Amino acid sequence: MRRHWLAAALVVLGSSLPARADEPWRDTLAKARGQTVYWNAWGGDERTNAFITWVGGEVRARYGITVQDVKLSDTAEAVTRIIAEKTAGRDKDGSVDLVWINGPNFLAMKQQDLLHPPFAGRLPSMRFVDTINKPSTMVDFTLPTEGMESPWRMAQFVFNYDSARIADVPRSMQGLAAWASKHPGRFTHPDVQDFLGVTFLKQALVELAPEPALLQRPATDATFAAATEPLWAWYDGLKPHLWHGGTDFPASGPAERALLNDGEIDLSVSFDPAEAAGSIEAGLLPATVRTSALQNGSIGNTSFVAIPFNAPHPEAAMVVADFLLEPSTQAHAQDIRVLGSFTVLDLAKLSPEQRQIFTALPTNPALPTNAELGPVLLEPHPSWMTRITEEWRRRYTH
Amino acid sequence: MRPGLVLKSVTIAVDGRVLMENLDLAIAPGEVVTLMGQSGSGKSTLVNYIGGHLDRGFRASGSVHLGGRNITAMPAAERRVGLLFQDDLLFPHLSVLENLLFGLAASVRGRVARRELAVGELARAGLSGFEDRDPATLSGGQRARVALLRTLLARPDALLLDEPFGKLDPGLRSVFRTVVFDQTRQQGIPVLLVTHDGADAEAAGGRVVTLA
Amino acid sequence: MATPLHPLSPARPWRARIAIAGLAGTLIILLLPLGAGFLGTVLPAFGILPAIGTGEVGLTPWRDLAASPGFATSLRLTLVTGLASTALAFALTVGFFASHRQLLGGRLAEALLAPLLASPHSAIAVGLAFLLAPSGWLARLVSPWPSGWTVPPDLVTIHDPWGIALTIGLVVKETPFLVLVTLAALNQVDAPSILRTGAALGYRRRSAWLKLVLPLIYPQIRLPIYIVLAFSLSVVDMALVLGPGNPPTLAVAAVRWFNAPDVTRYPMAAAAALLVLVVVMAAIGFWRVVEMGLARAGRRWIATGRRWHPAIELGEVLATGVFAALALGIAALASMVVWSFAWRWPFPHRLPVEWTVALWTQQASSLTGPLINTIGLALATTAMSLAVAIAAFEILENHSFALPAVVRAAALPLLLPQVAFQFGAQVLLVGLHLDGDLIGVCWLQMAFVLPYVLLALADPWRALDGRYARSAAALGASQVRILLAIKLPILLRPLLIAGAIGFAVSVAQYLPTLFAGGGRIATLTTEAVTRSSGGDRRVVGLLVTLQAALPMLIYGAALVIPKVLYANRRGMAGAA
User: A95 to chain C nearest CA, in Å?
Assistant: First the structure.
């Protein structure tokens, strides 16, 4: 935990360094008025798209900012584009103002110097963020955010299942392998190219690795081989019992959700504990789907927004980032009829009235409580993710 | 007598093959000269040369004069050389009247005046009431008359006829021939008639030039 | 000869020179993104990409590519799906025309072909994915009775590792195109009398068609076949939706690596994109060799004088295959229309259990932008392409250039895989501050819209009786007046149809729009492909419906407008 405190301290320290850091927030608001924010975000989820549209309406009314939702089929498309801009020598007037990002894409942008100087510390609503019980709001895949990205929603690994068809839901990754051999062809995970697919493998890695603490450090050839050996043994046993015999995989989380909806599988993975409840509301899953957490906790992380180095409207991007952290916005996002995403805020830091909005939110039988979800396990260093994807490809692509 | 259509020492070749060499020909206003010859002897090529429609592959020397103007290098549209083919080539998307108005010289001004003139000519040709007809619904003889009318309304200084009677019934053919030659004589237009048909040449009554 | 002969020079030589220079300049500008794009792919493929600091020039990217997991499978998959789908589409087309006197009576054929011709590849792919899935429409039709499936069977149908679903998708989309171009080619030969002559000599229809008609029309459908081949080998959107993912086809792998978070994959992505180009060129060369071999064998077969061969009876099967392909395609599109009105449609129900129009109303606001972009881009590129095509034909015709040669040259972009240009083109546009700009997207799309418009217009333009123009000129009309008052009105129908084709091509563009648009220009097609990776088939159904309906409306208008305008002109009924 000490590392995270250090990271948090760095954020506070870092936020006073950049040139514009001392600019009063109201000056930022004044500059932002009339600007357009090109918000690049993965567009595969309708509810998120609708939420971004809602944010656009709100910030236009309140701050005079126009939000253009740029839907990506892969977040890396935005990174590619910023690299193309850098290649062409476009150091300002880039095409991206704000990008929904985390993990490896954040690492890539950080390493390639594609990010705007630290800004998160300047956001007024940053003070509500839960940095103690939700350390992933400050440490993105073991990388300190250093104020270069701002959190907006929480994610945690869970199972979704159709209670009309199965009752014996697995409660661990070991249990999953046993379950799959009893129900061949009724479970799969997204392609490892997709973040949820590789998160599935990371969840198993965290559970199965002999020395989980090693995962918090960059992987070396030796640590990787040792730590992942049980993972591959486990996966070799699981793979033949997967949907389609493990020869192909749904492209993404929502694509896997569609398989659950179509009845092609009975059990699916999700990185959003409220996904099932929200999808039932939206007609995207049968009403009998329920969410199940893992008994020893599961990997969780935070979705962030970051500003590229050449963003033409960083002020408006910051105002949008701050708006995403406002308690009323966070409560709206947590509404299962909207997104259902768990808040990044610490409810204890809010006023009673603000807390009231959260407690008054509707619930659903498919929505787990925080207690049911169990502890949040930390994401391994991004190098593990890249290596797992590569190693999986090497082993299972012929 | 003012000079009509005059060809001076015209030589035309294509792909190294000489079609005609040093051809001299003068056609007086109102005169009809008939051009005969086998297929491929260059009859149509000469018509295209005079009209300014010859394709690029051809090489030529000599000159064409019309009403005293040297028109050899002029674009087709400025030569004032009318042209009638075996097919009437009435524009299929225009009505009979619109076809005539397209042809009618722009020097006749005023919408109403132009229309009246064209309608009047149509009536004189025995086609009154045909103004708004679709050309595709006319008989062959009627179409031929409209095509002639359209050509003459452009007020050409010369007229080239490329087998214009070929597709008409024998009965219609002689009637139409008479109409054409009466009109061109009346208006003093020099005419070059290309044909296979000896009867055409006879009806024209003028000189006959044969290309080898 | 008495006087030296001189070539006939145009009346205004300087005008001609300006016109030709202008035309050449326009074409160069239009093709510039391809040239720049090609360079931007070749350099990184050999390790030259300063932006990410890999300055080491050499073959490392190629070695990385060859060593990447599943590379051999990818390559084989690309070749097999591309060649098999093209060969199958061609065989179906030949079998169909050899077997059937008339194409279902012209009008019906138009009605059946039009939706498939007008719909983007991605739309048909998304529809087929639902049709063929284990939980899809076909499985639902036989479930639970008579199949006994209460849950979908665990069968691999789409995304299959052999690429069968992708091959089916390509056949469904490309067969109508080959049928259309064959119909056009048949219009230029008098097939009925050739077949009558054959019959009089004792050859039945299929033999006579293969021996007498096919050799006559093949030269005219060769280019379209190469276009289909090149497209099938390099398609991205359809392969994403129907093809296998592990490993995918080469073109998909290239796009994936271009988009990987790990930017050091760039050079390898560029090498893969370049390899797609090599594969396309090699496949076209291979096809040409097979073509010549078959032609020689065919000539020997003709010389034998044999009136019949057992293989000929396959024609009936192949002809049925055409109907199957058309039916699959139409059903795929229809299923997406149904989805757009579904709230809940679980397996094994044959139709939705809860219907709604909510999707249409909910999505109306978020789809207005993409819809306007799609229409605007399509209208702009189509109008510009028509203008360039008309100017090109007019200038070339007036100066007696060989039209076919020029059209064939302009078709070159269609023989090259789009993925080979995208990154470089993106850098060019970024450098000119045109990325993410409608102008940039227009520019890049033009390189693919213009060739189709040129191809569609070339034959009707050539077929127009040149004596109309001569008659008009003899009546004193200027070039411009002849063009505006005679040629264009007579060619109205083919002009509108070429425009409708251009419109459909623009609507279907995925990669050029994605890369040049910098993701900021959303069109129906980019939205449909992006969202097809998401889980809401209802929204995808709505997008596909719009994607297919829009070009079809334009196509319908292209058929109806001349009929209304020339209702009273019998000579225009089948003009040109």
Answer: 7
What band does C53 get if pLDDT is binned at 50, 70 and 90? low
Please give the Cα distance from B144 to C392 (Å, whole number). Answer: 34
pLDDT digits (tens, 9 = 90+) for A286-331: 999 999 999 988 999 899 999 999 999 999 999 999 999 999 999 9
What is the architecture, at CATH level 2, of domain C73-356? Orthogonal Bundle (1.10)
Domains in chain A, number: 2
Q: What is the pLDDT of residues A55-99, one digit of tens each?
A: 999 999 999 999 999 888 778 888 888 988 888 888 888 989 999
Q: What is the CATH number of domain C1-51+357-576?
A: 1.10.3720.10
Contacts of B13 in chain C (CB under 8 A): 5
- Using the Cβ of C489 and the Cβ atoms of chain B, whether some distance falls under 8 Å is answered with yes
Is residue C192 reached through a cis peptide bond, with omega within 30 degrees of 0 on the bond before it? no
| A100 phi-psi bin (left φ>0, alpha ψ -120 to 50, beta other) | beta
Cβ contact, residue pair C151, A78, below 8 Å: no
Is the per-residue pLDDT at A208 higher than 90?
yes
Among candidate residues B49, B44, B43, B2, the one with its CA nearest the CA of residue B26: B2
Collect all residues of chain A within an 8 Å Cβ-Cβ radius of residue C539. 46
Helix, strand, coil percentages in chain B from 3-state DSSP, rounded to 5: 35, 25, 35
Give the chains touching A; criterion: ≥3 Cβ pairs < 8 Å: C
- CA distances to C168, C169, C268 from C164, rounded to whole Å, are 6, 9, 27
Percent of chain A at pLDDT > 90 equals: 65
User: Domain span at residue A253?
Assistant: 156-299+375-396
The complex's ipTM works out to 0.87
Kindly list the domain boundaries of chain C, sorted by start residue.
1-51+357-576, 73-356
Please tell me whether residues A293 and A307 are part of one structural domain: no
**What is the number of CB-based contacts under 8 A between chain A and chain C?**
185
- Provide CB contacts within 8 A for A18, sequence distance 6+: A117, A118, A119
- Nearest residue of chain C to residue A395 (CA atoms): C69
**Cβ C299 vs Cβ C504: under 8 Å:** no
Chain segment B133-166, per-residue pLDDT in tens: 999 999 988 999 899 999 999 999 999 998 888 7
Cα angle for residues C271, C273, C274 (degrees, 5° grid): 65
Average pLDDT over residues C370-376: 95
**Looking at the complex, does the CB of residue A112 fall below 8 Å from at least one CB of chain C?**
yes
Name the more confident of C7 and A166: A166
Nearest partner of C375 among C209, C183, C498, C549, judged by Cα:
C549
Which residues 287-326 on chain A approach chain C with CB closer than 8 angstroms? none
* Identity of the residue in A89, A245, A263 whose CB atom sits nearest the CB atom of C346: A263
Residue A366 in this model has a pLDDT that exceeds 50: yes
Which chain B residue lies closest to C575 (C-alpha atoms)? B92
A393 contacts chain C (CB < 8 A): yes
CATH of the domain at A39: 3.40.190.10
Would the CB atoms of A262 and C258 count as touching at under 8 Å?
no
Closest Cβ opposite residue C575 in set B73, B92, B156: B92
Q: Residue type for A380, please?
A: P
Question: CB distance C473–B93 less than 8 Å?
Answer: no
Mean pLDDT, residues C45-64? 78
Mean pLDDT of chain C: 87
Contacts of A186 in chain C (CB under 8 A): 154
Q: What percent of chain C has pLDDT over 70?
A: 93
- Residue A398 C-alpha, separation from nearest chain C C-alpha, in angstroms: 4
> pLDDT (tens digit, 9 = 90+) per residue, A117-146?
999 999 999 999 998 888 889 989 888 999
Classify residue A333 as exposed, middle or buried by CB count within 10 Å of its CB (0-12, 13-18, 19+). Answer: buried
Nearest-Cα distance to chain C for A76, in Å, is 5
Rg (Cα) of chain B, in Å, rounded? 17
- CB contact under 8 Å between C522 and A40, yes or no, is no
